[in-house]
Fold Tryptophan--tRNA ligase.
Amino acid sequence: SRRIVSGIQPTGNLHLGNYLGAIRNWVRMQDEMAEANRIEAVEGGSAAQNQCLFFLADLHALSLPHDPAELRRGTLEMAAALVACGIDPARSILFNQAQVPAHAELQWLLSGTARMGWLNRMTQFKDKAGKHREGASIALFTYPVLQAADVLLYQATHVPVGEDQKQHLELARDIAQKFNNDFGGASDDDGKGGTIFTFPEPIIPPQAARIMSLRDGTAKMSKSDPSEMSRINLNDDADMIMKKVKKAKTDAEPLPSELDGLDGRAEALNLVTIYAAMTNTMPADVLAEFAGRGFGQFKPALGEVLVETLAPITGRFAALLKDREELDAILARGAAHARELARPTLSSAYEALGLVRVV
Ligand code: ATP
Ligand code: MG
């Protein structure tokens, strides 16, 4: 059975790009697991164990300069957004790292195994530290070890990783292998030592839509864009969504019947992409339906689709943001479950290292 572990930065001011580019992938993974469990239960008769653990990477946020109030707000907002978008705390384990101390504990236990040379090769540190490497935090340098702990702690079998994270997952596997080798005790036939940690396999997330600004089809839709009209926020109401779509930048041409007719028309392509993503179709299907029609007709149709599909999300999102007790309860339940899953692995790591604990 599969156990997928995935983390997300707890940022606030969420928008349509975050939903289509990141959050919806999680909802899909969760649904795939539920389906796999259903099929396996029918075939095997016993309850299947496929499971998703989704966490808010609040500890990782400490690796870059941050504002504590923003981190707190972003964490709660991201938790609310995830649940509003369909992450079901009853089916997936949803929590924030800070409430599961085993992440930080295991990071330290793994820090004796991870080599300076390995971390020195991480390109993301070089990118993020830039020219001022001496001024970078220790956390920025060692956070790939925390990432290794994040997944090894739960014996993750699969970890979704984008291009930029592949190297970190390799590192997690190297750490697992060396730890198993050095401290795994009785060696198996393969000479790899005992297996305290499972080697996590990468899964490449499905190609997510890249959503562009409503004001400029060549710029990514982003929370940092100063123009509110450039993005659809997850807390926009129906009127606001309609208004933003109607004011979106376009050109004067009608929609073409073929995709290559959108070459050089970045804004038109973006609106078609959004329509396709929201209706779970392909851009070519959208063109087949709207070929020859102008934006006077396409925009209201797009606005309606957005309002209809986002309404349940924005409604639940707003309600959850106002219900701190419910949010706290969701995160507390998820964390309790995560702590329970982490306990045996954490204990065997302590034990293997010769650390005396009377628990
Ligand atoms: P910033 O402007 O500060 O970078 P952002 O709006 O780009 O913020 P992030 O917090 O960087 O948002 O991204 C959170 C997640 O949402 C990431 O997985 C990122 O790939 C995804 N994402 C962000 N913007 C888009 C977009 N326009 N289209 C698709 N995915 C996006
Ligand atoms: Mg970004």
Observations:
- Residues 325 and 331 are 10 Å apart (CA to CA).
- Residues 9, 11, 17-18, 20-22, 208, 210-211, 220-224 surround adenosine-5'-triphosphate (ligand 1) (CB under 6 Å).
